[in-house]
Amino acid sequence: MIELKMILLVEDSPNDSELALKALEKHNLANEVAVVRDGEEALDYLYRRGAYAERQEGNPAVILLDLKLPKVSGLEVLRQMKSDDHLRMIPVVVLTSSQEESDRTESYKIGVNAYVVKPIDFHLFVDAVKVLGFFWAVLNEPPAGCVKKRL
């Protein structure tokens, strides 16, 4: 039996988050996907503060992070995560529409694990999310204690 782990989706576009959720659900790739709509909310989720103060302990298996977010940018979320001893080991995949070389370069300098430009085609987008979800939430083996596994 495959053990499914939690995914955090940080996406401000309702359409893109709905497509990502459908792709993950259709292929049974996560038993829980938390969705947050901006960078501030992502940080609140990760640090268990504000509306997320009572959420279950543990980190997601992977974070799918858009860069162009309201309130706090995806790059700033990534910066804060990678400078924090408790969060830096969480794999982060940038899933963005930005094809700007400066965004890609900065993401890798900060410590992103992968950078994926969202395909415009619906089917290609669903396939990309499916592959990302399968690799990071099912196949990838993080260091002990990095991710709280869910049953």
What does this structure look like?
It is a single chain. This protein is an alpha/beta fold. The protein is 39% helix and 14% strand. It has helices at residues 14-26, 39-47, 74-82, 101-110, 122-139, and strands at 7-10, 33-36, 62-65, 92-96, 114-117. Strands 2-1-3-4-5 form a 5-stranded parallel beta sheet, with helices on both faces. α4 (101-110) links the parallel β4 (92-96) and β5. α1 crosses α5 (122-139), α2 runs parallel beside α3 and α3 (74-82) packs parallel to α4. The radius of gyration is 14 Å and the shape is globular.
Structural class, from helix and strand content?
alpha/beta
Largest sheet: 5 strands, parallel
Contiguous low-pLDDT stretches (5 residues minimum) are: none
Cα distance spanning the termini: 11 Å
Helix content, binned percent: 25-40%
Order of helices and strands: EHEHEHEHEH
Q: What is the global morphology? A: globular
Provide the gyration radius in Å: 14 Å
Q: What's the count of strands?
A: 5
Number of DSSP helical runs:
5
Share of residues in strands = 5-15%
Q: Determine the mean pLDDT.
A: 84
Subunit organisation of the chains = single chain
With strands numbered from the N-terminus, the spatial order across the biggest sheet is: 2-1-3-4-5
